[in-house]
Amino acid sequence: MGKNKIIITIISVVIIVLAIYLFTLQDEVVIEDPSFESAIREIINKANGKITKQDLKKVTELDLGGKGIESIAGIEAMVSLKVLDLSKNNISDISMLSNLKGLTYLNLWSNQIVDIRALAQLENLEVLHLDDNQIKNISPLAALNKLEELYLWVNRLEKIAPIVNLPKLRILNISNNPIEDIGSLAKTEGLARLIARRNGIIDTSFLSALQELTYLDLGNNFIENIASIAELQKIKTLRLQRNQITDISPIIHLDNLIELELSSNPIENIVLLNSLDSLKLLEIRRTGLVEVDFLEAMTRLSYLDLRYNLISDTFALAKLIELKELYLTGNQINKIEGLKELKTLEKVDLTDNLIKDISPLAGLKKINTLKLAKNIIVDIGVMQGLNDLEVLNLANNQVSEIGLLLDLPKLTQVDLRFNPVYQRKNNKQVIEKLEGKGVVVYR
């Protein structure tokens, strides 16, 4: 009888041990990709031993961007995940994501993804990044009724119809896709931010239905007619660079507009912009501008970019007393008197002009970046009091006296190339002293 009890006890122990072993086997999660496994071990703080479902179930947020991961097999066990970043990897198969139904944020930017059917199961997603992949069919996204932000730039999309009925969609980026017709977006009436650069778009009539838009970027398309934009009364940022727009009259009554980009368009009536006196940012590069008197009323501007035009003077800028950044590269400017009273300027780029006299800059004490390359400047004495100056570019001028640079306390970088600086013997010592102070000198 005693022997039987012992045998029964042994058998019971064996059964229990075997059950525990089998449970452990069942609970173990096999992760194939070594980069993925290494990252997971670091996150769960488990350098050795088996990775179990219990280990992974605790994780609610996971950032694995740029880890060189090719396979995410095993991630299906991370059922508590709400935030997942897998950007900048080499992932092609995302089928195992279908089990992560609690996800609200998913970033798959810059991978090798073609098939996104697994995403149809992720009904709690609010933000989804699929940028820079090889996706053509986005029909699985039609079921994501909680989606608020969707990023699809740089893919192979030809149609966007599957996403136009998403009820909560507020932000959409479909740039760099072979899409010519995005008219179906008229149904996405709640859209607040639309970015559709480099898509081959011609027709913009659909815009009149998007009354909630506050940000619109249609740069680098083939747009000529922007009449529908006149109805976008909530618009704050409008970017229409590199199109075929000649008539900008639909813009002039957009009272809430604060940022406008119109570069590289054959605009015929640029003076109409003088009514936009609430603008804070204006970019009009490469449009053949000669006269800029229309800017005089834009006294709230803090950022102005007029690079590569035909402007010869700066007098029209004299009233822009809130200006912080000014870019005038590649014009024909020979006088900068108009900048004299712009006391708030912090960044100024006057590269590639015809400037000799820079004395109007003397009182601009807040400048921290000053680019004056490719001019005909000889005397830089006016910089003596520019004590906030950090970056200075004087390349391709006629400057020979540079001793005053030693008195600029915040200077970190100066470009002196293609100047006759070595005509003065002491300049070698000046440069050595600058470098001794940690200033990067290009010579």
TrEMBL record:
Pfam families in the cross-refs: LRR_4, LRR_9
Keywords: Leucine-rich repeat, Membrane, Repeat, Transmembrane, Transmembrane helix
Gene3D superfamilies linked: Ribonuclease Inhibitor
Xref: SMART domains: LRR_SD22, LRR_TYP
Matches recorded under InterPro entries: Leu-rich_rpt (IPR001611), Leu-rich_rpt_4 (IPR025875), Leu-rich_rpt_typical-subtyp (IPR003591), LRR_dom_sf (IPR032675), SDS22/Internalin_LRR (IPR050836)
Segments traversing the membrane: 7-25
Keyword match Membrane: yes
Coiled-coil ranges per UniProt: none
PANTHER family: LEUCINE-RICH REPEAT AND IQ DOMAIN-CONTAINING PROTEIN 1-RELATED, LEUCINE-RICH REPEAT-CONTAINING PROTEIN 9
The name this protein goes by in its record: Internalin A
